[in-house]
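This is your field. Have a critical look at both lines of this record:
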Amino acid sequence: MKNFTQIVLIFLFASLITFGQQEKGIIGSNNWLNNWTEFKPNQEDYGEPTKILTGNIVENTTLHKREVYLLLGNVFVTNNATLTIEPGTVIIGEYKSKASLTITKGARIIADGVQTDPIIFTSNRSVKRAGDWGGLIILGDAPTNKFGNGSVSSFYTQLNSTIYANANYGGQNLEDTSGILRFVRIEYAGNRMNNGDYFSGLLLGAVGNQTILENIMVSYSGGNAFEARGGLPNMYNMVSYRANINDYKFNYGAQSNLINSLAIRFPYVSNSSGSRCLQILSYDKREQVDFTKSGTSVVAKNLTFVNDSENLKSEIEMGLVNEAVYVGHNASLDMNKSVISGFNPAVILEDKININQENLEKIKFSAMYFNNCKGNIFVEDNSNNEDLENWYGNSAFFNVYSKSDNAETFIDLRNKRRPDFRLRINKIIASNEVDPDLRDN
């Protein structure tokens, strides 16, 4: 018995050491991407539709795993109804009608999948492409920093008074709940609209902090993968893969936690207007927002941002690689224990931000791992970042810098079926001194 106890204690001690070593970037004693994620969705056969979803869902409704649903046009869950989706259910968005699903303010979605049986939203095209259909929109009653309510009416092709009412979001209920999204995949969403804008794979409009958002993967989005406009969304174990625009976008006073989440970018998959892993803004147009209200504030912990380049230097020279993180005026970011690997540079701050102690205390980077980036933290359109390097390079922030290939940095990112983006322990060399080559711009 004594020997058994000693063995257990040794095992636990070894596990704690390993877990501690992996504290930067996405963490977990096991690879939590296994079973529910899919990095080659175009090879999946989800079956033919057996039922159609169209128009308004005005009463409590359950979608069953035994059926395959075709989402036709703009579908709204209204009248405070709850849409329940069983684990393993497949919902296919129609390409021709630019299908979308909107959970309106006051309504709820309970899409509670399981690791071995995720809920799937995907495209109906035989050859699937980013932006085949609209996406999933969830609208709540939490605050934004806008004057009046927000609206997503521009997303819909047919407008009438009912559509306008269903498109509104925002209120004063911090603890509002729009339901549950857990173990959900959203594939090939992000359709381009007539005004030139794009749907997001998952758009959260003023979602309250009681909404459960865990283990959600958005892949091949033609627009943003995840977008939060206001609200207090708490997001855990998110995965963005091959998004054309931003992986995670927060705007209009969102007060959000983004924890243990992943974004994988590719240099040839991006929008010409700029694509980042994380974009934090407080407004698009100043006249839209009330500056007496809180600006956007994001706590980002244990994130891994990877640019999967075959030839980083060449692709930077061709203008194919952007920054990983962009922080706008009047926005706050507290980012720690995260990995940024292979970007140009790692972070850009909007040129409207005055570089002084007050503003830098609102934009925090601590215990970070900057790897193989051409420069670290810059002000927009400014090639001199000495002040920022001196500030964030201070040993008190515990930021470290390295220059390693992605294959050496992560456990197994080349495995297309079961990739593992946790840090490879004992194979990387890090320092809190900025590598001169990484400073070179």
